[in-house]
Amino acid sequence: MLPDILTASTATILRDPGNYNRLFDQLHELHQFYASLSGISAGEPSGEDIDLPWGKAIGPAGAAQCLLELARTTKFVRGVHQAILQQQARYPGKKIGIFYAGCGPYAALLTPMTTVFSAGELSFTLMDINAASLAAVQKLYGQLALEAYVKEYILDDAVTYRLRDPDAIHLVISETMNQALTKEPQVQIMQNLVPQLDSNTVFIPQAISITAKLTSSEAEYAAAQTGSMAERIGLGTVYAISRQTPFPHTEQTIRVPDTVGDFTMLSLFTDILVFGNEMISTNESNLTVPMRICDTEGLEGREIRFNYVTGTDPHFESFLK
Description:
CATH architecture of the largest domain: 3-Layer(aba) Sandwich
Radius of gyration: 20 Å
CATH class of the largest domain: Alpha Beta
Strand order of the largest sheet: 5-4-3-6-7
Strand content: 25-35%
CATH superfamily of the largest domain: Vaccinia Virus protein VP39
Number of domains: 2
CATH topology of the largest domain: Rossmann fold
């Protein structure tokens, strides 16, 4: 029998998503439970992080920390649940194959599904490049007697990995990102895995967009105090990547208005469409905290070029045109 906290927290995420106090308490209790079984506790990224040719793969403590981000965890879990239901309707009677790239020590976005679906309905392939994370999730699943769900544990790099049987995969999950797609290899993982998939295979997240906006520090502060939405000036999308468009970035140009008034800061905003109607928007998660680029003083009427740089330190470069 699955532990009460896993069953209860999953039920709250799926059926009572507005109960933030209960969700907060349950996710912290769930973390303590996972930590006691896996030997991995949440913490800041540590010396177990791995520097790759295409970005940083965070270690098990940093990956475990992600569980405690309420909006991030709950919206991804709901998105995964919706995607499974969609694929079950599309493939009636078939076991739904799920490939989780960057599963971390808890497989946090997928483990809750074991309280909803049987091992006869789902088949997990759990991948991580960090041996400590993969060992931890194997230990956790052993302790929870969930081995029947797992087809395979894979220690490998999702940026270069070739899927062995893509036709058996109906859903891919990879949440390996930071704000404004910096530092971690989300983009290159998508660019490697998506072209290998059948056209009906779902990828989570479905889409990520980065937009440039002018902001006012006073307006942002006031909005934070009242829980309202600050006024901002949108300047355009500088990058969008999705299941349908996993393409390399092409240089984008935005123009600063001739008059900016109190909007004295240029920032990049991240929006993540997890699946269906599950969206993580500005400031709902560490993933969507705006990234400040520069002050706008002296830039009125100027054009700015943005280029997304992949490699050891993924980031956006900006240049005056």
